[in-house]
Amino acid sequence: MPVPSDRRRSRLQLTVAAVNPGAEAIPVLEFPLLPTALAAGAAAAVVGWLLVIGLVMVGWFTAMAIPVPRMLGFAGQLWLAGHGAGATIGEVTVTLAPLGLSLLFVLLTRTVVGLVLRVVPGAALDGLGALKAWALVTAGYGAVGGVVALSSGAAPRAGWALLGGLVVGALGSGWVLAPRLRRLAPAPVWLAGLPRAVVTGLATMTAVAAAVLLVGLIVGSERVSLIENSLATDAVGNWLLVIAQLLYLPNLLAWSASWVLGAGFSVGVGSFVSPLLSTVGLLPAVPVFGAVPQPGGGSAWSYAWLVSGLVAGAAAGWTASARPAVGGSWLRALARGAGSGFGVAVLIVVVGVLSRGDLGNGRLVGMGPVLLNLIWLAPLPLAFGGASGALGHWFAKARHLPEVPRPGGPDDTTELLDMPTERLEQQTVPLARRD
Questions:
Q1: How many domains does the structure of the chain reveal?
Q2: How far apart are CA 291 and CA 221, in angstroms?
Q3: Are 42 and 117 in the same domain?
Q4: Structural domain containing residue 60
Q5: Would you say residue 143 has pLDDT above 90?
Q6: 18 located within any domain
Q7: Which residue of 245, 342, 351, 424 lies most exposed, with the fewest beta carbons within 10 A?
């Protein structure tokens, strides 16, 4: 019961009946979904192609004797290489895809598609409209991939160009439409927090791989300098060489991750590089390959890197147990931790497959992680580390937390109030817009 000291104040609620009824609404230009989504995918592919042409033209200005059609053909080959279709340079076919360029294409697709789809009515993107838009954008991007392959003299690889375009288009447009696509198929409650845990584990492994690559460059700095001096490039050539190596940086990180997991990688036929043993023959004349260790057995510091899989798995498992709070069941924490670690291993294997390829002919064939080793050496430490990290968090924090309430269930913190509601006075006031 309220006491006399409680004072009630009447509240005034204003309802806007109309704003400038005589004025006309500003027209908004909208386009139908079908042609707009197809154009968005095609535009994203063309923007990526123009970016590659710009990079090639920087080097072309130093050798303008090369005909323009030949320069444009090389730009098309580089665009195809970024989509996994390989590139033909003279008589040499390079199938080692620059994953850095591929990631750049995905980012450009996300940006361009996000801008173009703003002119589509919002209602057209609701429900199955989001799935339709995703398919149309992907098809538009893939069609441009086939056209670029045919116009660049790579007709035999048009199928791979189409497939690579579909993959890049699907990733970029799916990134934009992800919130709408998730509404079509909501994830189960028990999966909540696992994507974040997998990303945490993958980020940890990437940081470890970057540290290994940096240490290798520092230790092999003398060999790196010798390779740079042997190339005898000018200032523009040096910058282009740096850009080319940065485009292959994700490949190098994938190889380093395979190295720290003990699976090792190959830099050509008959070569094998791992923490336990290194057998290296002829290397490409690229400065970054100066970081490859000398042939012979491993050392104590190289053996220490083998615990990286356990560390990355533990980071994923700790995150899986912490968000959302597991509470109560250690078996649930164990399953979530092991599952998150296994998810990280699957992504590492997938990236390892994409990072493989040929950098030429002869001995420069089959460069990249040793897949047979990676397939069984990656899941073991990552899943075990994930389970250990999740159990560690459960014993430290989560076992003291209550179970996560069921969706839509009653909340223990809800209090029923029997206080009388306050009286509201409603008044409708038309508002006029100031000119």
A1: 2
A2: 7
A3: yes
A4: 31-186
A5: yes
A6: no
A7: 424
- Domain annotation covers residue 418: no
Please say whether the beta carbons of 341 and 384 come within 8 A.
yes
24's tokens: 């006309």
Q: Which residues contact 65 (CB under 8 A, 6 or more apart)?
A: none
Q: Which residues pair with 427 in a beta bridge?
A: 14
Same domain, yes or no: 216 and 131: no
Indicate whether 13 pLDDT > 80: no
Using H for helix, E for strand and C for coil, what is the string for the chain? Answer: CCCCCCCCCCEEEEECCCECCCCCCCCCCCCCHHHHHHHHHHHHHHHHHHHHHHHHHHHHCCCCCCCHHHHHHHHHHHHHHHCCCCEEECCEEECCCCHHHHHHHHHHHHHHHHHHHHHCCHHHHCCHHHHHHHHHHHHHHHHHHHHHHHHCCCHHHHHHHHHHHHHHHHHHHHHHHHHHHHHHCCCCHHHCCHHHHHHHHHHHHHHHHHHHHHHHHHHCHHHHHHHHHHHCCCHHHHHHHHHHHHHCHHHHHHHHHHHHCCCCEECCCCCEECCCEEECCCCCCCHHHHHCCCCEECCHHHHHHHHHHHHHHHHHHHHHHHCCCCCCCHHHHHHHHHHHHHHHHHHHHHHHHHCCECCCCCCCCCEEECHHHHHHHCHHHHHHHHHHHHHHHHHHCHHHCCCCCCCCCCCCCCCCCCCCCCCEEEEECCECCCC
Does residue 143 lie in a domain region?
yes
pLDDT tens-digit series, residues 349-388? 999 999 999 887 777 788 999 999 999 999 999 999 999 9
Q: Are residues 405 and 380 in contact, defined by beta-carbon separation less than 8 angstroms? A: no
One domain for residues 174 and 295: no
Asked whether the predicted pLDDT for residue 18 surpasses 50, the reply is yes
pTM of the entire structure?
0.82
From 158, 186, 214, the end of a domain falls on 186
128 within domain boundaries: yes
pLDDT per residue as tens digits for the range 245-301? 999 999 999 999 999 999 999 988 888 999 988 888 777 788 898 888 888 887 788
Kindly state whether residues 55 and 151 are assigned to the same domain. Answer: yes
Domain check: are 261 and 165 in the same one? no
Statement to judge: residues 178 and 245 lie in one domain: no
